Amino acid sequence: MKKLFPKSLLAIALCCSAGIRVSAQQKDTIPVPVTSQPQVPMALGNPQQYEIAEITVTGTQYLDKSLLISLSGLNVGDKVVYPGGDQFAKAIQTLWGQRLFANVAIYVTKVEDGKIWLEINLTERPRLANFIFRGIKKSEAEDLAKKATLRKGSVITESMKQNTIAVIRKNYEEKGFRNVTVNVTERTDTSQVNSADVIFTVIKGNKVKINDINIVGNQNISDAKIKKKMKGTKERTRFTLHPDEYQVYTDSVEQQSDYWRTFGFLVPTRTAEALDPYFRFKLFTSAKFNETKYMEDKEKVIAYYNSQGFRDAQILRDTTYKTPAGGLNIDMEMLEGRKYYFGDITWKGNARYNDSLLTRVLGIKKGDTYNLELLEKRLGKQLSPEGGDISGLYMDYGYLFFRVDPVEVGIHGDTIDYEIRITEGPQATIKEVRISGNDKTNEHVIRRELRTLPGEKFSRADLIRSQRQIANLGYFNPETIGINPVPNIQDGTVDIDYKVEEKANDQLELSAGWGGYIGLTGTLGVTFNNFSLRNIFRKESWDPLPSGDGQKLSVRVSSNGRAYRSYNFSFTEPWLGGKKQNQFSVSFYSSYQNPSAYNEYIYGTTTSEDAYFKVLGASVSLGKQLKWPDDYFTLIYSLNYQQYKLKNYNYFNIPGFDDGTSNNISFKLTLARSSVDQQIFPRSGSNFMLSGQFTPPYSVFNPEKDYTKEPISDQFNFIEYQKYRFNAEWYVPLSRPKGTDNKSFVLKVAAKFGYISRYNNRTTLSPFGRFELGGDGLSNFAIYDRDIISQRGYPVYYTSNPKLNPENGQPVGYEGFTIFNKYVMELRYPLSLNPSSTIFGLAFLEAANGYRDFNEYNPFRLRRSAGLGMRFYLPMFGLLGFDYGIGFDRLTPGNGLKDAAKFTFMLGFEPE
């Protein structure tokens, strides 16, 4: 039977706003109200089965119609029951669940010969044309848009609005704005079809500050100590004084007002210690309230109580409430409980080490204040690189399957007895060592640095040392070196997986300029830190030079036109022979200086005389790693030769030393120890260096001759001296790394000393090889084989008297110091530890001075300075840095810091 239906509603049309009724066009359909969940109206009449002949989609502008039909679950040829079939309800629910539509309806447009024609009518939600924030700064709006992941063109949904509101509130609550209100409005965008702008109007309100933290119930731990542990929840800055102390100095209301205005300057005879804990002035403290940090701080308070022996301590109740002035008060009630102490500590299951040794390593005695955190730390429940715990003691000797469990076996009043149960297990043997991530560096370069070798017993100390060795190669990102021991319990072995990430470490130095009369100036230098000499004749390995064997090749050419030029070449093989860590280095260098060119260019003076200063040098060295006192020590032997040629060159202001040739043949012996965790930004460890450099004692071979009576050029024909240097550096982390970025403050402390002298009084000490102090360490004095000791905040100085103006203390040609000492203290903090750009800032205190001889040596007469600096390590260019230092001994009455301050720039290396 054929029957034509007008366009009629089969199921409920789902709308955006509740309360709207949809009327059916079919007589046998009863409309129902729309609720939060779409419903299908109950149909009347005689249900029959039909085959879907056609499905059309109307109302869409952006979405693919065939995809929407597929999502609905209705397909041409499917059998459906009409009226009353549930296939239509499911289709509506599925489409509604996409959250893309403001209205969903299915209409029957035709029924004929057992077939049915359907129309899916959709009203798309508007698209986001623009998102606008009002009431806040542009930078804040950009930050919020990123956090809320707002994107133009996305569908505007209620969920999107609520999510953005939540992000806004959370963002400002963390900054102390706890009364934030957000209003959301939409306006149609006429420039685009079915688009709208969403406007978020933000009213931040006033920032809520913590006024007071009131603590009760704490009889054993003071308020001050509890508040000190709440680092993320601070009271507002205030000044307080105990009333008794207050009355001593203030007798009237006027005096009291003056007193508060002057913040205690009426008590000059009292020290801070005498007034503590009543005299407090908190500076730069943030008093904003952060719910997350507050919860964390409460846990820290309980942890602190536990560490003081109060293991039952708890916060009975706490509340936060607003003050009439708009601030926030916090009330906390503590239940401290009894203070406990350690009782008897016994050991069970230990065969490798006896009880007395384990007790000594544990370092906890009967009667000590109970501290579970300390106990677990000493047992090594949380492994630390420092070691020194029970777990480390066992794991350093292969007991990878070791387990230790502290068990309370008795509580007698306030004393707790422990039995520490140890399961030693077998000693694990290293089975396989696998390395991944080394795309450029050959595997043998890494393996030779490892302390974990197949067939040897597992050792945690060897793992930590291997990680340090890999980091100090300089070829890999030290922050991402991964070590993963994989135990094999069945056979008592362990596989160790090392994962590295290559980083660029070759360096290029390139600069050029035009110096007028002098001509072309510039520097071209390349350093390949992972060079491969054995592949130099293999074209396929050049990229741009053969690499991967851990050798170092450096070539540098520098020129100031006619005035100066230098050539440098060096090569280093860190493992000569490939079996032992014997570092072999060879270098050649040549330089030429023409003082006439400088004088002509700078002063306009000309001379017909040819003048120059030439240096030709070479050195060869061999370093050997020592096993005693430990394998951090290295002994280095080096043989050096320099030839100095002077012609019409009286730089040193030494009469008779204008022309001639000087030869410097020396042997240098260096004992060094380095245990830093990495090279670029060390966080722990130390560097020590003690060296002695000696020329042949020519005068000793001829004891009858007084060389001081010879012409000066003859005295310096073959130079003789003995020279000693000592450098020491310590790196101490001041805080634990936070988060995943491993950032923490590091304190660097350094001390440096140097001394050069004759073998006897029958010779004259030459101007070569001495010490020059001050400046940025880039002085041309290096051409004279000088040790350039930089000092921030000062230019190069030539007198040991700090009160004399360095620029006027001595002529520029002064022959140099024979003794120096220098002390440095730096506080460092990394801003970026990315291997492509390592950046850290520092604040420094520095003191140094140089002396002509022991007669004027005074280790306490020092030039002092302080300042700030930045360091940038870029793989291609090496070090870029600057310091701003203030020389305290350059300060003069009536002048500001301008005359006492000095910028120091660094390029390529850190000066001494």
Automatic annotation (TrEMBL):
Signal peptide: 1-24
Domain POTRA: 340-425, 428-503
Gene3D superfamilies, per the entry: membrane protein fhac (3.10.20.310), membrane protein fhac: a member of the omp85/tpsb transporter family (2.40.160.50)
This protein's UniProt keywords: Cell outer membrane, Membrane, Signal, Transmembrane, Transmembrane beta strand
Chief location of this protein within or outside the cell: membrane
PROSITE patterns assigned: POTRA
Localization per record: Membrane
Keyword presence, Lyase: no
UniProt xrefs under InterPro entries: BamA/TamA_POTRA, D15-like, OM_assembly_BamA, POTRA
Protein name, as recorded: Beta-barrel assembly machine subunit BamA
Taxonomic source organism: Chitinophaga japonensis
